[in-house]
Amino acid sequence: MDDSTLNPDATPLEPEPAEPAPSAFEPGPAEPTPAPGGGVGRAATLVGLGVLMGLGAGWLLFREEPGTARAGGESGVTEAHGIDVTNDPVLGADDAPITIVEFSDFDCPFCSRFASQTAPVLRRNYGDRVRWIFVNLPLTSIHPRAYDAALGGECAHEQDMFWEWYDAMFSGQFDSSRDGLRDAARHIGLEGDRFAQCLDEADFASEVAADLREAQKYYILGTPTFYINDYRLEGAQPPEAFAAVIDSILSGS
User: Fold this and answer.
1) At what angle do helices 39-57 and 146-158 cross, to 10 degrees?
2) Its pTM surpasses 0.85
């Protein structure tokens, strides 16, 4: 894939702060308590090593856990302006003139601010002219349970309910404890036993691993970070910041 298709320096606006990823020299994250079978514990350890070593040394120690073929939620989209989004959740039409790729962490307060305050305005104002794609970037050194929440999102995606999961997890009603994730799953109507098994066995660890590699590829060091077609925007920006970029693209200027 040609990295030159994206221009990180093309951002037309001064970004607001994003939540930074940990330095490569910071201590690693606290490991979540392993679930029965150890799937999440092993996978989270790999994510911790990936975040710790990858930002400073090219993710040399990162390895995937074997994943499970996804049963549902396929969008058919594999690439968006140079970013590999294979199997990632998509909301909107494939032919939308604007694509927003969001790198995010379900435990990030800035991500929650965007999801609850900015995203609804943009969806309302631009409708089917915008296609949304979500990419996981759990910052496990500062959010030890964010990896579980990312896995939960993948399990919701398997049942074709990722965007309901997105709204629930960023609503402030549910935390990323095991009980909190199961409560969120019940709230949006997921099949409980299927979700619990998927989460406990870390069925989609390889999907989260692929997302993390893509974030490293584009030197994304904080959340939320967005690509609006070829423009990079960082932080919990207000709707006006996104509108300025979107309107510029739509007008051809």
Assistant:
1) 110
2) no
